[in-house]
Amino acid sequence: MDTNEFLKHARRALCDIAEYYEDMPDKAPHSTVKPGYLYRLLPLEAPEEPESFDAIHNDMETKIVPGITHWQSGNFFGWYPASNSFPAMLGDMYSSMFSVLGFNWICSPAATELETVVTDWLGKLIGLDKRFRAINDDGTECDGGGIIQETASDAILLSMIGGRQRVLERLRAEGASDDDIARARTKLVAYFSDQTHSCGEKATMVIGCKVHTIESDRGLRLTADALRAAVAADKAAGLIPFFVCGTFGTTNTAAIDDLSGIAEIAADENMWYHVDAAYAGA
Fold first, then answer.
1. Tens digits of per-residue pLDDT, 190-202?
2. Helix (H, G, I), strand (E, B) or coil at 186
3. Which residues 6+ apart lie within 8 Å of 5 measured at CB?
4. Phi then psi for 193, rounded to 5 degrees?
């Protein structure tokens, strides 16, 4: 596809996008296709010859669109709210145009610094202490700063790795040997409620720690009392509490855990405290 062809088909794609949103109120938000519908419409082997963009466009309209759940519909109330927008789509286009890999600063300085600035904006918006910022008010660098993760699963996994590293470094600073550290790894336990998103338990599987799922109260919230009892029982059994997750708006019911009470216990027990914004955070 040369530049002229790209312009031709890009204009068509933009018209499709605009029409899709214009017609959104008339679309049923959930697809009515049956499982396996697309298998019967597509070849079982990758095509050896290319197709025209017109043919691909026709496939999208006749085969893909019927199987789409319209998350952007005002009538869609399942799972998370999906907040796409025309400005975001234009941003995606420019991002695809540059298509940089931000491994480090030299790979693309603008990508690194833009992320740094935007995460500092977010930190200020939600009231984080100045020590969490990457840039001081006078423009000099701080020791803090954040990065944007691709998914909630990535975010909680990296938080858990950070929590694990923190407790192991503390044990080493207290004089623990390599054997002691190896044994401590098998005793680490993370805490979630029975309403926490599944990405929490999946993260424990990835890093190989124990998980303690705590029953929520009648309001489907994780309470400080329940957490305190769970931590005490695990410590008595020789385990090492190192991580706890509170949720602001669970995906099942939008319940809000006792965030301040959990924070006090996390501080007392020197645990990493992760707050999952989940359904209601935005």
1. 999 999 999 999 9
2. coil
3. 53
4. -95, 170
